[in-house]
């Protein structure tokens, strides 16, 4: 397989990692935003990317989503090296959910989801979806708990409903990897739980799909999370199986604060550790 061969169904089915970032560094204006970070994500793996504000989580997500190029190191998507292949082609394999989706017009939920096929914010002029595509949009919305809202208009949606609509939109081109940047931020308790249930359902229905989810809060991790990476100051502090990485010791070091981590019914929680008062 050469780096420049066109993507084929056979290549997509090949047992190569969905994404492999090898010692990636990113320098902007002389600042090292990421320093030699390596991450390999395989089909069916669900990664949590955690770290304090400014740790480099969104920067790494941008590299994984083929939005930015590394200053050093390499990123391979299904064995194709970023910078050597057509980015537009690679991006169809990567669903990126941006919570700041810049949509202004009052599209319906179904219309927003269908823009995932043209990778545009607004519907493309002179493009209309086929019946199979409409049916897929409806099916995804139903799986994400939005089946009763397909005709609702974007400006009238709650933040949680928008988030789930954007996940359905990102899934339209059948990506191999879904990148989720703080999907639960700003959601109330019920909306967060609905989102996490939807992510668990999605992962069950699409066992080949890989995901990388950025968050600050362990409570925002779905129970189906399999792996985790902790970033601190642009460096990888720990990376591997979720239960090996999401420990009291490592998470405390990552956030520079003593916390105690627990896991109940598959879900994680963090609380500050009490320090002895003198
Ligand atoms: N274009 C840029 N030029 C210079 N510095 C940048 C640029 N983009 C981001 N940074 C800096 O890089 C660091 C990492 O930013 P990034 O957004 O990746 O962090 P994050 O972990 O996602 O943070 P947060 O949790 O606050 O969203 C921050 O200190 C940020 O100020």
From TrEMBL:
GO terms for molecular function: ATP binding. Gene3D superfamilies: P-loop containing nucleotide triphosphate hydrolases. Keywords: ATP-binding, Nucleotide-binding, Transport. It comes from the Bacteria. This is ATP-binding cassette domain-containing protein. Signal peptide: none annotated. PROSITE patterns: ABC_TRANSPORTER_2 (PS50893). It holds the Pfam family ABC_tran. The keyword Repeat does not apply. Residues 19-258 form the ABC transporter domain. It comes from Streptomyces drozdowiczii.
């Amino acid at each position: 397989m050469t780096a420049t061969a066109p993507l084929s169904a056979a290549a997509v089915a090949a047992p190569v990692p969905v994404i492999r970032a090898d010692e990636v560094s990113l320098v902007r204006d002389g600042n090292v935003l990421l320093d030699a970070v390596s991450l390999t994500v395989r089909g069916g793996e669900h990664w949590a990317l955690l770290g304090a504000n400014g740790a480099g989580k969104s920067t790494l997500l941008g590299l994984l989503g083929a939005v930015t190029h590394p200053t050093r190191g390499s990123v391979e998507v299904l064995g194709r090296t970023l910078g050597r292949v057509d980015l537009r082609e690679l991006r169809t394999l990567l669903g990126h959910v941006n919570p700041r989706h810049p949509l202004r017009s009052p599209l319906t939920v179904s219309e927003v989801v269908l823009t995932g096929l043209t990778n545009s914010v607004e519907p493309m002029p002179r493009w209309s979806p086929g019946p199979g595509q409409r049916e897929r949009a409806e099916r995804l919305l139903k799986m994400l708990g939005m089946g009763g809202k397909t005709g609702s208009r974007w400006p009238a949606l709650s933040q949680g409903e928008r988030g789930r609509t954007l996940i359905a939109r990102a899934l339209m081109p059948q990506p191999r990897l879904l990148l989720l940047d703080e999907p639960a931020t700003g959601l109330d308790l019920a909306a967060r739980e609905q989102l996490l249930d939807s992510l668990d359902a999605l992962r069950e229905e699409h066992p080949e799909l890989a995901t990388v989810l950025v968050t600050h809060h362990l409570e925002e991790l779905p129970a189906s999370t399999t792996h985790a990476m902790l970033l601190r100051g642009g460096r990888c502090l720990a990376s591997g199986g979720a239960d090996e990485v999401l420990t009291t010791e490592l998470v405390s070091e990552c956030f520079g604060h003593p916390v105690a981590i627990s896991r109940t019914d598959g879900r994680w929680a963090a609380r500050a550790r009490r320090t002895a008062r003198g």
